[in-house]
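Below is how a single chain appears once it has passed through the pipeline. First comes the sequence as given, then the structure the pipeline wrote out for it. We keep one example in the README because the format questions we get most often are answered faster by looking than by reading.
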Amino acid sequence: MIVLVTGGSGCGKSTWAERLVETLPRENRVYIATMQVYDEESRQRAKRHREQRADKGFLTIECEKDLEHAGIPEDSTVLLEDLVNLTANEMFDGGNVSRIIPALKNLSRRCGHLVMVTNDLFSDGAVYSDSVQDYLRKLAEINRQAAEMADCVVEVVYSIPVALKGDLPCA
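Resulting structure:
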């Protein structure tokens, strides 16, 4: 099963995605963390997230970019948190954004289950610099292709999951 979870900032999508993964097989449960840890605030945030997952049976793999080489065990249940950070890291930190979709496709073939989290950054109506606009266009294309791959696309609104594609999995 492949699930794409989206929603606005702070809407509960990560919590819902973790609950969904908890309903799936516990063996080989992998959390791919894409956030760059670069200062004390981000270190504390990463520590808090690891503590929140401590009893959920996750092997955490830090993978800021180059997802293809993350070393995910075959038949794993994978939670990828998140496409927004992965795209930014590939685009602005010496990576290659064009390798994301092939890596996601390969990962989806190798996993028993894949739950991907992304974010809705497209509704604020603000005008951004050319580089940010380019980033948003690339993220939108990655989200579109991830949704195409997914068996189910879920938007979490105020902690309420709404199926946009497929049947809503029980979480």
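Strands lie at 2-7, 29-33, 58-62, 77-81, 113-117, 152-157, 160-165.

See the next section for the split statistics.
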